[in-house]
Amino acid sequence: MISSVETPFGPLVVGLGSQGVFALAFRPDEVVDLDESDSAAAIRQQQSLQRKVQKELDRYFAGKLQTFSLPLDRRSRRGFRGEVLQCLEKVGYGKTVSYGQLAAKAKRPRAARAVGSAMATNPLAILVPCHRVLPANGSLGQYGGGVERKAFLLRLEGIEIAEHA
Fold this sequence. Notes:
Blueprint: E1 2-5, E2 12-17, E3 20-25, H1 40-61, H2 79-88, E4 97-98, H3 99-105, H4 112-120, E5 133-134, H5 147-156
Parallel strand pairs: 4-5
Antiparallel strand pairs: 1-2, 2-3
Helix pairs in contact: 2-4, 3-4
């Protein structure tokens, strides 16, 4: 099921399946629906999960939630990209990591550029916090949702943003 949730910077597209949230994206073209059951029970389960996603995002944006408890569907993760996203999930609220540091955590210290590619294809924006990954020079770098949103999310988590960034 594909639907949307409201945030302070507009609606996000959410993909919900039998195993949890499989997508949270800034644009509809970033989400491909899983071909799953559309039984009444499955729809009710997904609608319930959508309400939970909205509630947790509301609490996160209000500064009252630091760790999401949503079930995440990680089936699309493969290879190095999957390893990087798994490592990224361990970067806590209010913390940042560089692309190189994340590559090292994934046991490929020379793969910082590949980490950037994994961040660009992260299907679970905010929930798997690619906004917490910064270039080694301390700038904001890029972000699929736009640099302004990345800065907003980092400030929300209490991370100081350099003026030149």
